[in-house]
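I'm curious: can you give me some protein's one-letter sequence along with its backbone structure tokens because I've never seen that pairing?
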Amino acid sequence: MQIITLTTDMGVRDHYVAAIKGAIYRHCPSAHIVDVSHTVKPFDIAEAAYYVSSCFEEFPEGTVHIVGVDSEPMVNFSGSEGSFPSIMKFKGHYFVSNDNGFFGAFLNDNAHEGFFRIDDVLSRMDLFKFPTKNMLVPAACRIVNGETIESFASSFNSFKKAFAINPVIETNLIKGSVQHIDNYGNLITNVHESLFDRFGKDTPFTIFYRNKDYHIDEISATYNSVPNGEKVAIFNNNGLLEIAINRGANMSNGGAERLFGVRIGDVIRIEFTPRGSRNTLESLF
């Protein structure tokens, strides 16, 4: 069974996703289609990268991931180098997207296994009317049908990198930010557990968010480690620091997002007080 995943900003109200799926089945009838999300904010390639990076490794190697966000190519637009339908191979998976910054945001600092521009699509203006269906789907299906990428795409040595906010480390401090708010209102940050552990697993800390009135000073193993309605911090399945209200969405308050008034991009401060630090000494007096 060959799997193709779909991530788009097209929503589910219109016919667009159905048209894409129909095109996939027309080109490769044996494919199995999995929807990652169709509610990416329009043209938000960073959000698309977050969704795809959070789940692609759950699929078997050889899976083809179509990312239909900001898919229309640009050729020498306003002095830009342009953006072109492309394919990246990474960890045995294939990612088919417009080279609009998605690949750089998705890959971060990791090394890919091959990057290719899809041939013979830019000269056909009729394909531009629905580029995800008309450009990306045929390329994805050619991979599924066993064609080598080199037979319809050319190797290229660079790709665009979208601006991404990374955590900042200072003395006894991590400055991160909220990069995603999920359906439960949970605040998912860009602080990975590995970064947190650089300060030592037993080092006391306080996580501040929104303002000094909102803070947490422990990491829990699960949401249910705290009573219903209490704030909780965990490292989620992807190893990212997450701030939540246990069953907060069930109480119709929208979870941590609404209760704390936090938005995507808001700063999260993690202040560490290692043994012998000034803060530790001041606490003795």
About this structure: The longest strand covers residues 173-181. Helices lie at 16-27, 45-55, 102-107, 131-144, 193-196, 255-260, 278-282. The domain at 3-155 is CATH 3.40.50.10790 (Rossmann fold). Confidence is low (pLDDT under 50) at residues 280-285.
